[in-house]
Design a protein that fits this description.
Elements: H1 17-41, H2 51-89, E1 96-100, E2 103-106, E3 111-117, E4 121-129, E5 135-140, E6 146-152, E7 165-175, E8 184-197, E9 200-205, E10 209-212, E11 216-220
Antiparallel strand pairs: 1-8, 1-11, 2-7, 3-6, 3-8, 4-5, 4-7, 8-9, 9-10
Length: 229
């Protein structure tokens, strides 16, 4: 506890900036009070210390303390807001989302990639690489204008099933003049978790991909494999 009774450990969250500032203020106040006591003990009775000087110092310490108190309350509100964000994101878990991006999760041997092809595409190629940067699949992309969804069965060009995980996808194309096309890409994935980092709400797709909530374009029920007869 510092000056007065306004700030104590119950108002602080350990490891936050306000907690660190409180510790520093307490150290500085302790040094100031020790110095003040020493000066009072050794002052000249005929020429006593000016009380206004150390009173203004105490007032300054009190002002800093009040600011720390306000910051501590703000940190509590932010932490509560983050908790509320995570609670709201729980509803996403188990659903499939479409989000802007180029990293797609291969989940249970299945992955979906979305892209919007502009007009005048002459050639278009879809390339999938693994985390090591090696190409595992490459094929022609649909050149017709509009939105398309490519369903990848997780197999490379040799027909070998690749392990589940994160894969990078690039849709490239040229127009009839040989210029590169600007192609918007999206990825689909089943949400496996949620969290908040640096104040931003994130969703987890599989074990390896984290996407920001504000990149999500659509959410839908995850398709389940049909049961056999």
């Amino acid at each position: 506890m510092l000056i007065g009774n306004s700030l104590d450990s119950s108002n602080l969250i350990e490891g936050t900036k306000s907690s660190e500032s409180s510790d520093k203020l307490e150290e500085e106040l302790g040094r100031f009070l020790n110095l003040l006591v020493t000066q009072l003990k050794n002052q000249d009775p005929l020429d006593p210390l000016d009380a206004n000087e150390f009173t203004s110092q105490l007032v300054a310490f009190a002002g800093v303390e009040q600011q720390i108190f306000a910051n501590a309350n703000l940190e509590k509100l932010l932490k509560l807001e983050q908790t509320n964000q995570i609670s709201a994101l729980v509803d996403f878990i188990g659903s499939t989302v479409e989000a802007t991006g180029r990293t797609v999760p291969l989940q249970d041997g299945q992955a979906e990639i979305g892209y919007t092809m502009p007009l005048s595409a002459n050639t278009a190629t879809l390339t999938i690489t693994n985390s090591a940067g090696r190409t595992v699949f490459q094929g022609d992309a649909d050149k017709s204008s509009g939105k398309h969804v490519f369903a990848w069965d997780g197999k490379n060009n040799s027909g070998i099933l690749q392990p589940d995980g994160a894969y990078n996808v690039l849709i490239s194309g040229l127009d009839f003049s040989g210029n590169l096309l600007e192609i918007t890409q999206t990825v689909f994935g089943r949400v496996t978790g949620a969290g908040v980092e640096d104040g931003l709400a994130n969703l987890f797709l599989g074990d390896d991909i984290t996407i920001a909530q504000d990149t999500v374009l659509a959410i839908k029920e995850t398709k389940t494999a049909s049961a056999g007869p």
